């Protein structure tokens, strides 16, 4: 790597169904020279010595022995996801390559979704929403899904 040249990172692709999101790719391009798997396979001899890192996005590209053997200057595999179960850590470390991960990256959003699902289930919000938008006729009669109360001020009609 020449002085002033950005370190090269191998990614599967930019955009599309399995590629790195375009916004994320724009951020990566500020610090790295991105090489897609198609570019790498098209010119393996030239690219293999430039690549120092692999960015794994949604378990892609697949890290196998053949890929590791073809990248002599590989130093790190950066995984952007929860867990590293899809990576053979023992094999990767045998090549002297480090693996990074983002633990706790989605802990708060996961907790938020979990709480929302529990509240929606406990308060039957889905049925309430259907009743609100489609009316009682959707249920073929007036449903009894809340609690039977005469006083509407004790119940929640919506959020």
TrEMBL record:
Pfam families: 2-Hacid_dh. It comes from Rhodinocichla rosea. InterPro entries: D-isomer_2-hydroxyacid_DH, D-isomer_2_OHA_DH_cat_dom. Gene3D superfamilies: NAD(P)-binding Rossmann-like Domain. Keywords: Oxidoreductase. The keyword Oxidoreductase applies. It comes from the Eukaryota. Residues 22-113 form the D-isomer specific 2-hydroxyacid dehydrogenase catalytic domain. One of its GO terms (cellular component) is cytosol. One of its GO terms (molecular function) is hydroxypyruvate reductase [NAD(P)H] activity. This is HPPR reductase.
